[in-house]
Design goal:
With 220 residues, the protein is mostly beta strands. The chain has one domain. It has 2 helices and 15 strands. The strands form 3 sheets. Strands 3, 4, 5, 6, 8, 9, 10 and 14 form an 8-stranded mixed β-sheet that branches. The protein has a 5-stranded mixed β-sheet with strand order 2-1-15-7-11. Strands 12-13 form a two-stranded antiparallel sheet.
Length: 220
């Protein structure tokens, strides 16, 4: 992305707390929202909507890295688009089709929640989750033909090993985008979800055989 809107600078420094009391599986104890991402050879043929749904289907074997491509060329398969709302709920549970999945999160998710994940399902699979969004292209203006996809320099690597799987804290990786704005290979700016300097935030789920990723969102 050629230009970075100056308002993004307010998000350059963010704190990410960790709840003190943990369970035996590595996650905090207490009330939480649970989301399961299911890897499928053949996904359902509709959008899998419903206010009580806690699952999103993705293709079991699909890998891509959309960073830097034109937004108009984005392949939306295995993309989970993120929508600011008052609470957590699945809007579209099918990420295998041409319009991707959609997941609503509270507008204040960055400051009010921590995010934890573990890989489950049959041992041997892996996946990479990366937070991405649409940014302005050469003209520095969002919503124009040269808009491009920008993805965080950080990601979440999920490996389904044998034995008990423990949750890990992935709050900053899944609620912010780390950017290298000067091209020196070092991230120097962190943009929180739903910051107005970018738009159409999503998680890119590049899957290499992982059948289940379990996410939990805990109030801080």
């Amino acid at each position: 992305m050629k230009q970075i809107v100056m308002s993004m600078m307010v998000a350059a420094v963010l704190g990410f707390g960790v709840l003190a009391h943990a369970t035996g599986n590595g996650a905090p104890s207490g009330t939480h929202y649970n989301l399961n991402i299911l890897g499928k050879d053949n996904c359902a043929g509709d959008d899998l909507t419903g206010s009580q749904r806690h699952t999103i289907q993705v293709l079991l074997q699909f890998q891509d890295n959309p960073n830097g491509i034109l937004a108009t060329q984005l392949d939306k398969r295995n993309k989970i688009f993120l929508v600011a709302d008052i609470d957590f709920h699945v809007l579209d549970g099918n990420a295998c089709d041409g319009d991707g999945a959609a997941f609503a999160l509270p507008t204040n998710v960055v400051s009010a929640y921590t995010v934890w994940v573990r890989a489950l399902g049959k041992p041997g699979g892996s996946a990479t989750m990366t937070t991405c969004a649409t940014g302005s292209g050469l003209d520095g203006v969002l919503g124009t033909a040269d808009d491009e996809i920008v993805c965080s320099t950080e990601n979440v690597v999920l490996l389904r090993t044998s034995g008990k799987q423990r949750f890990v804290n992935v709050t900053k990786e899944l609620t912010t985008i780390a950017l290298d704005t000067d091209g020196d290979g070092i991230a120097d700016l962190r943009v929180p979800l739903f910051d107005s300097s970018l738009m159409d935030y999503f998680w890119n789920f590049s899957n290499n055989g992982l059948r289940l990723a379990q996410l939990r969102f805990y109030p801080r």
